[in-house]
Amino acid sequence: MHIKVRVSVEAKKDEVAELAPDTLIVSVRAKPERNQANRRVIELVAEHLGVAVGQIRIIHGHHNPAKILEIRSQT
Q1: What CATH architecture applies to the domain 2-71?
Q2: pLDDT in tens, 52-63
Q3: What pTM was estimated for this model as a whole?
């Protein structure tokens, strides 16, 4: 499963908003340095979807606010 994510960094609070079943807006307090924001995005999306952090990976947009995440099914 793929999910489109729009990320805002250095926000006042960590937050996930769902625009559509496959589209999220994620705000993170972390800075976009040393992969901190990307790690926090994955943690928040995992919590929001109720899946393990290890099941999520960024497949597009590592250095871009528009990202595509892959959610792998647990086997």
Answers
A1: 2-Layer Sandwich (3.30)
A2: 999 999 999 999
A3: 0.90
